[in-house]
Prior knowledge:
By secondary structure, this protein is an alpha/beta fold.
Amino acid sequence: MLLPALPLLKKARAKKYAVPAFNINNLEILKAVIEAAIAMKSPVIVQTSEGAIEYAGMDYLIAMACVAAEAPIPVVLHLDHGKDLKVIRQAIRSGYTSIMFDGSALPYEKNVVMTKRVVGWAHAKKISVEAELGVLTGIEDLVNVDARDAALTNPDQAAAFVEATGCDSLAVAIGTSHGAYKFQGKTHLDIQRLKEIAARVTIPLVLHGASGVLEDVTKLAEHYGASLGRARGVLDQDIQTAIQCGVAKVNIDTDLRIAFTAGIRKAVADLPKAIDPRKLLEPANDLMTQVAKRKMKLFGSAGKA
């Protein structure tokens, strides 16, 4: 059975670990994540973006997640970065156990109004809502101090936002960024800002754009022909510090994408005579499972199922 997210996230914040949340688009990614969670005895959040829903279909994704939830570990199905209200309402009706409304690009007051509306819909079905405040942009992309401060989550505003909307968890912007090209060189997250937010906001905090862009996996992909250039991710030490400061859910997408790509490229090179898709997918599945296990260990969720 798919479980609600909030009890898992509250426990994680209290015990100072984070529940890993992996974006999935297909069966291979889902199976790799669940296999890792079983092996590591970790709770896991399986999440789908609106793009994943457009690609695979909501019914297919829900059906796969329901099968995955038969595993002997807690499994949550979460809508990631929900912006289309029709998709959000469909997800609430169809079996998702956690919803994100992403109003971060809206003016503050509009974000409050829209988030509160979604909270009303979701809470009526006993589904928790993750909201977002601040803009996910790499710190070094904002060279102007005032612009940087305006883009990141304001601690006082975060407290007011949570009070006004009734959201159950809050995604904060402290310098992370989506994708593989987050920073130029090594850049640390704004941990002091996170501490100030955590002091004012007692609900679980969420870190988006938190893939580490693992060097060994990136090198493997490039060895077999990928051209990833100056890909940079979030440092492991920053992730661990953020978790100690109140982050209870960490999103991972890019790291699995790179692992999938590396595995496929290796299989195509190593198995020129293979025409069985299962043989070509096997190395990718194995590599994604290894990456997911590493994340569970890093986040401290291993053994917490």
